[in-house]
Amino acid sequence: MSNLVKVAVTGAAGQIGYALLFRLASGEAFGPDTRVALHLLEIPPALKAVEGVVMELNDCAFPLLDNIVITDDANVAFDGVNWALLVGAKPRGKGMERGDLIRENGPIFTTQGKALSKAASDLNVLVVGNPANTNALIAANNADGVPIERFHAMTRLDQNRAYAQLAEKAGVTVNDVSNVTIWGNHSATQYPDAENAKINGKPAYDVIGHHDWLRSEFITTVQKRGAAIIAARGLSSAASAANGAIDHVKSMVNKTPEGHWFSAAVPSDGSYGIAEGIIFSYPVTSDGQGNYSIVQGLSLSDWAKEKIAVTEAELRDERETVADLLK
What we know:
Helix content is 41%, strand content 19%. It has 327 residues and is of the alpha/beta class.
């Protein structure tokens, strides 16, 4: 068992971090033949809590858990890592506009981006902390020597939510649903695409005859699911967000089955007419060797293109908001 992957997790004492770390340590993300070293980054007041989490990790006696580093220094946390899961971010406060949140979190990801230059040459970065797409853009633009293609923002949680909604409506399980794409921003403007989705290999629009639902309630449910969970639970999504991060990593490190794809926010190369450079969620496939490709040639109705244009415009506006933080 010679394979070793070093994984940095920021915000390690938070709820998402807590739900994430045990699954990483178990080997679920990287497989049963790969040892995992965890580099846990937190702010100084939370370091004591991280020590408690590490006690629990040790008490689990995970065979694949190699070692654990605890630090409040991003340069230490990212030194030599192969994956960086950027979970920690300031949450949106009461009365705070999205633009305010972007400005508040910008310096965090500027600093972390600079520190990521100390990572391994095969580094991959997944940003979970919101606003994830633009935080990823900030980090990528400050990470000297790291190709921008190595930076992703998580929309896999949104994809999973869309799978669940389609499965419930069709009276099937999520195993029967495939090829759902989340286009654009991890925000309320995202476009969950049922036009290209399949249920038991058939177009979702053929299986679900309620097309008004597919163009209305389905989309808004996925877009606003996070807010609905906060209203019901009193806290934001944690276990499901951690699960989305694990799913993203697994999809990136394993070859995508023929004819399938998954959703991830990656740097736009102009595909589908989207502005280059913004971090935009597309349908993507992985070759299992650390490389991904944006799926080309999907058919989009004029109605779908209008939805995609809205989320693209939001991301372009966010980029302008943080223009001074981008190199």
